[in-house]
Every structure is written in structure tokens, then in C-alpha cells.
Specification:
The chain has about 475 residues and is mainly beta. The longest helix has 13 residues. Strand 17 and strand 18 form a beta hairpin. The strands form seven sheets. Strands 5, 6, 7, 8, 9, 10, 11, 12, 13, 14 and 15 form an eleven-stranded mixed β-sheet that branches. A six-stranded antiparallel β-sheet has the order 19-20-21-22-23-30, with no helix packed on it.
């Protein structure tokens, strides 16, 4: 039968409950060890406090650590308050994240963030600018979230949970090329959006999904990136969403950057979606990296990458007359004063400079190629002779690019140096079918020239041009 006790029950030894023990709102308070030796489940509908009589969470351990393990592993050494001791951990989701303060008000899961250089420790939405320091990506469902226990750090600031390593859904665009598994991802001029790496840069990580199936059938049109309603995501990106976004929807600065960097027009669309990425911020360097490496070395020497600039230290200095002759550690030569030479200066290939003092030839400075053929000279009267098979090299205005737009069969290029005698060389970068022939149909001196095709092109076709003025002499050009 029932036993009702309105006050305390003092049991000197053990009290055994053969079936269930139901405890009302008063709960169980124990100043000693409470042992439950049951092979069945124990159910607690309310909060459980260990070391406290007023727990604030479903299970609260106060005054010591929580050890999950055997008696041999759990001992008095495993008792630091706030620490969970375990020999291993198994989690169903994929990334390790950390809370960072931010001044951004609407960061979304999947957006790439970088260090906010105007606020220490803070992060901000990436923008693909030179010198940007990537931190990670806003996490969707982290396995481990650090810095989020009690919010004491930067309590008055917004917090952004940033995935630092692991598998994470990331917002990307195929604007610089479709992704394949293993491709590196870098930030872009689209704020918070990653693109395929094409040159050396700091990278967020590697793509774990392809975007080769993104097309007009699979990716619906949206009015803007901000209008996208991203589907629910458990951190594994099950929906693999993609959308088509009009360039015209971007703000003026971003639109100008996209048009300049990726060659789009305001009437074009580009694809945006989410793919899984293995996040591990590092540096990506393509295999063909000579120019980038040279630039990197130059930046390092200039101190751009940190540290003091490297200044070449002279290794050899000779006093020569009233000046000095210096060779630095890089082999660069500098000289104060005049340099007088009667003879030749030759390079490794055989090309070189030759200074002639023969008054009958009236030549004081000549450049020969490796076949000992004169290609450039200045005589004593100041005339310049250039032997370039009748073609005179001009400045950078002679070289440029243009585009024949889809549906058009001609384009007019403005030029201040073109004239009726100019030779204009055209090289198409793309297929310009169904057209098969092209020619210069009109030249307006110092104004423009028109490129004509025999029929309209099917798609935008880019080309380069070289305007070469032709001299009157076949062997030499004399410039006073």
C-alpha cells in the first residue's frame, strides 16, 4: 500500500525500493553519495544538479569536472571545474568553429569572412581585396563551437560562429569557372562569396562538390543574392541549391568590379549556390607560377608580406676617378660619373652593344643581335636607325583588345595613332563562327578603324589588334 510521509524520513542504513520511486516537486536532495544500481533506465523529468541545489540547465555540474570514462581513468586529477574529461569524442557533424565578434549585422551561414583590420579580433564579410586575411566561413551546424560557453568575451558585440576547419557548406559562384572536386576556393569581389582559384592567392579550402550541373534548367532565376531563401541545412548541404543572379542587381561598386574582372555585362547573369568545402585556410599556388612567384618575391623584399624591406647591400665598391662603381648582392651594377667604352659589351646569347668611334661611319652607339646584324644605332648627329623589317615600334596605344558582340558582324575601334598606311593585325581569341573571314573595312586617320566579318557571329568574340605604322624604307627607319 501507499506510505505518505509529510516530514522527514530518516533511514539509518539502506532503503530499498523494489519497483519504482516517484518523487514529487520537492525532488531528491542528497548530502552523501546517491547510487542508482539499476540495469533499467532512470528518468529525470526536471533539472539535475551535481554540486548545486539550483541547476539552471538540464544537467549542471558545479564545483568540479565531468569525467566520462572508467574508474581507472577518472580520478581526483580529473576534477577541474568546467572541464569535461574523455578519452575520445564522436560527433555526427563535421566542423570546428569559434565565435568571433563582428560589426556585420546580417552574416549568413556559408559566407566567407576575413579579419577586420579596423577592429582587432573582429571578422567581416570578405570582399576579395588585395591583402585580405581570410579567417574561415560562417558555420551552419558545428560539431564543436569554441568561445560560445557563456558569452563573457565581447558581451556587447554580435557574435559570428566561424568554421575554422572541417567540412562546411560554402556559398560560391561559378563566375570564374565551374568547380570540380579538389579545386581551390578563394574570396571574390562578390562579398562573402567564393570562386575558383585561377592564380596564386590565399585560399579558403578545397571543393568537395562539382558545379558542372549548374545550368538554366537546374538553377532558378532570383532578383538578387540578398533575396535568396536558402533551404534548411543540417550541415551536409543536402539540397545543393544554385541560382541565377542578374549582374544588374549588384550594387554599383560590386557591379563595376564584376564587369571589369570577369568580362560580363550589366545584362548578363551569373550562378551562385552552395557546395561542401573542406575548410583549411592556406596558400594556393598553381603549377605555372613563374610570374606570381616573382611578384611574391618582390612583395617579400619590399616588406609587403611582413617584416622590414630587404635592401641590397653593396658587396663591391671601387673608386673610379671622381665617382664610384658598385655591385650589390643581386648582381646589379651602379656607377656615379661617366662611362666611356671603346669596344663591345656582349650578353650570354651573343647580342650586345658596340660603341664605334669611326667618324667615317658616323656611328657612336650600335646594338647587334646574336648574328652580328645591326638592329639599332645612333649616329653622331643624333639620328636613330632601327632595322625591324620596315616596321616601326610604337607605344602601347598600338596594341589593344576588342569584342564583336553576338549578332553583329562589325565593330569600330577608336585609335588616335591609326592612319591609312597602317598595317592592322587581328587575332581572335575565341571561335567567331559562323563567320569565316574578316578584314579592315574602313580607316579614319587618327580616329578609328572598323573590323568587318563576312557574317554575324553567334556569340561574343574577343580579339586583339596591333596597329603597325609602315615606314618608307624596308631596311632601316631613321628618326631624327
Amino acid at each position: 500500500n501507499d506510505i505518505t510521509i509529510s516530514e522527514n524520513l530518516d533511514v539509518g542504513n539502506n532503503a530499498y525500493v523494489r519497483n519504482g520511486l516517484n518523487v514529487g516537486p520537492g525532488g531528491i536532495n542528497s548530502n552523501g553519495v546517491l547510487s542508482i544500481n539499476s540495469s533499467l533506465s532512470s528518468y529525470f523529468a526536471g533539472r539535475v544538479g551535481i554540486g548545486t541545489t539550483s541547476p539552471d540547465s538540464r544537467l549542471q555540474v558545479t564545483g568540479g569536472g565531468l569525467c566520462v570514462g572508467s574508474d581507472a581513468n577518472c580520478n581526483s586529477d580529473n576534477n577541474t571545474e568546467g572541464v569535461v574529461y574523455s578519452s575520445s569524442t564522436s560527433m555526427t557533424v563535421y566542423d570546428v568553429a569559434e565565435n568571433y565578434p563582428t560589426k556585420e549585422s546580417n552574416l549568413k551561414p556559408g559566407e566567407i569572412v576575413s579579419a577586420d583590420n579596423t577592429n582587432e579580433v573582429f571578422v567581416k564579410r570578405s570582399k576579395g581585396v588585395v591583402g585580405e586575411d581570410l579567417i574561415g566561413v560562417i558555420t551552419t551546424n558545428p560539431a564543436v563551437l569554441m568561445g560560445g560557453f557563456n558569452g563573457n568575451q565581447f558581451p556587447n558585440e554580435q557574435q559570428a560562429a566561424v568554421a575554422l576547419v572541417g567540412r562546411v557548406p560554402v556559398i560560391v559562384s561559378s563566375i570564374s569557372g565551374d568547380f570540380e572536386v579538389g579545386d581551390y576556393i578563394v574570396s571574390s569581389v562578390l562579398p562573402g562569396v567564393g570562386v575558383k582559384a585561377k592564380k596564386g592567392a590565399e585560399t579558403l579550402g578545397k571543393a568537395l562538390n562539382n558545379t558542372t550541373d549548374w545550368n538554366t534548367s537546374t538553377c532558378p532565376v532570383v532578383s538578387s543574392i540578398d533575396s535568396i531563401v536558402w533551404p534548411e541545412d543540417d550541415g551536409s548541404n543536402p539540397a545543393k541549391p544554385c541560382f541565377r543572379v542578374p549582374v544588374s542587381s549588384l550594387d554599383a561598386v560590386t557591379r563595376a568590379n564584376v564587369i571589369a574582372e570577369y568580362g560580363l555585362t550589366a545584362g548578363d547573369y551569373f550562378y551562385v549556390g552552395k557546395i561542401m568545402v573542406f575548410v583549411n585556410v592556406s596558400w594556393y599556388q598553381p603549377y605555372t607560377f613563374t610570374n606570381d612567384l616573382n611578384s611574391l618575391v618582390a612583395d617579400y623584399k619590399a616588406g609587403v608580406l611582413g617584416g622590414a624591406p630587404i635592401v641590397s647591400t653593396p658587396l663591391l665598391t671601387l673608386d673610379v676617378g671622381e665617382g664610384s662603381f658598385t655591385v650589390d648582392e643581386l648582381g646589379n651594377v651602379s656607377m656615379d660619373g661617366d662611362l666611356e667604352i671603346s669596344g663591345s659589351i656582349k650578353g650570354k646569347s651573343g647580342s650586345g652593344l658596340k660603341v664605334l668611334l669611326n667618324s667615317e661611319l658616323l656611328e657612336s652607339f650600335t646594338i647587334f643581335n646574336e648574328l652580328d646584324k645591326k638592329i639599332f644605332s645612333i649616329d653622331s648627329e643624333g639620328f636613330v636607325r632601327i632595322n625591324v623589317l620596315g616596321l616601326t615600334k610604337t607605344d602601347n596605344e598600338s596594341v589593344g583588345t576588342g569584342t564583336v558582340l553576338a549578332g553583329e558582324q562589325s565593330v569600330t575601334i577608336a585609335s588616335a595613332i591609326v592612319n591609312a598606311d597602317s598595317v592592322i593585325l587581328i587575332t581572335f581569341k575565341d571561335d567567331y563562327s559562323p563567320a569565316t573571314r574578316h578584314w579592315i573595312s574602313e580607316i579614319i586617320d587618327e580616329t578609328s578603324f572598323t573590323l568587318q566579318l563576312n557574317t554575324a557571329v553567334a556569340m561574343d568574340s574577343d580579339f586583339t589588334y596591333w596597329i603597325v605604322p609602315v615606314s618608307d624604307e624596308v631596311e632601316e627607319e631613321i628618326i631624327p
